[in-house]
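Tokens help. Consider this.
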Amino acid sequence: MQVRVRYAPSPTGLQHIGGIRTALFNYFFARSQKGSFILRIEDTDQERYSPEALDDLYATLKWLGIEYDEGPIKGGPFGPYVQSERFDIYEKYAKKLVEDGKAYYCYCSPERLEKVRKEQQEAKSQYQGYDRHCRNLSSEERLAYEEQGIRPVIRLKVPTEGKTSFEDILMGRITRRNSDVSPDPVLLKSDGFPTYHLANVIDDHMMEITHIMRAQEWIPSGPLHILLYEAFGWESPKYCHLPMVMGKDGQKLSKRHGSTAVAEFRKEGYLPEALLNYVSLVGWSYDGTREFFTKEELEELFSLEKINKAPGVFDYKKLDWFNGQYIRMKSDEELLDLLMPYLAETGWPLSDRGKLLHLTAVAKERLKVLSDITGLARFLFEEPAWKDLSIFAAKGVELPAAHTALERAYAILRGGLEANKEQSMIEEELAQSAKDLGVKVNGVFQPLRVAITGSTVSLPLFDSIELLGFEHTMNRIQDALNVLKKGIE
């Protein structure tokens, strides 16, 4: 049996970490088994449908290098399956269930359904949901409704007794009482639109899906889908409900933890190979120790047996670390090409590629994400503003002492560079000046960094000086001393 899996997103919002992890697990499982990875667009919710969300789906898969395997017509145009193009199929199968006595037409108005719901709530009834009013209508009663021009929905006949079970590769056997399954849910709406459950089951069967890998939040839908498979007389695929993706606080990953949309990570400057590698480890582990995998390695090594039952924790700091490692694997030329779009947005003059390559080589060790480059490079293209003078003073140092420290640092730095002293010797002299002034080393280095770059977070001191140039550096320090002096006075 050839493995066939699918990723079936609804284009109602941007691709997020949880969804894309589901896509990756399906994709890597298919590739490891020499099977097929199918993309299906579940766009039956036309009210929430978003063209931007659909564009984001395609862009995200392309960015990650995830390719799906076939089009809707064998030998025809390549592309995903789209549910809104398959309504005639869903209607045909829904009516077949009615003919077989497994489903029925329901003529209840929204007003009646709302009335029933309120009555159940007021009576605090244990039974909540549709009251199966139309389940056993006579042909005469149905005809009377139809003569009124009422367009019915089609509802599934859910057994009122017994239990329904299915096997889950990860969770084991899952059983629910039929009385706990949604009572006779709608399969086909009066406007001909299928519900998620009907379209999902029909498509999985027709597309010969062998394994359904989806989030654990879909477990409650499992028994209903099994009942649908049984009603059609079809064999169900194997299920593997994936562990949830959680934040470090143990709660389901959401915007309160930070970015969750892949597009936001991409915009910020995460590399696709870093995101792909890290997200694949959220709930899956090869041997408990190995962390770095190429896409090709995951295509070979991924297996369902190594998915963890426990929720996977998405750690933003760990992702930053991964991304930094992948950034440092790039050559300076490769990295500069990746950084250029972020630098170009600033409007700075970028014609000197040699200088930019130097900047890239120096900045590489300090980049967590690509967008960090603008903050680190700003001092090369813009003069510092120094609006808040307290930035010159390290922790525990008063502003007058910071001014004195900068004066001494300026003399040491200028004299040392003009005499071509070794960098280590100049650093020792700066450290000694801190001791002489009775401050920590940062009490000297911080005002120096701020004077040169305008920030407490910067490239290494001597690399900054080399990039900026000796005279420009000395002039900046003098300007900073003047600004500090006025501020103190």
Q: What stands out?
A: The two ends are 83 Å apart (CA to CA). Residues 159 and 178 are 6 Å apart (CA to CA). The longest strand covers residues 36-41.
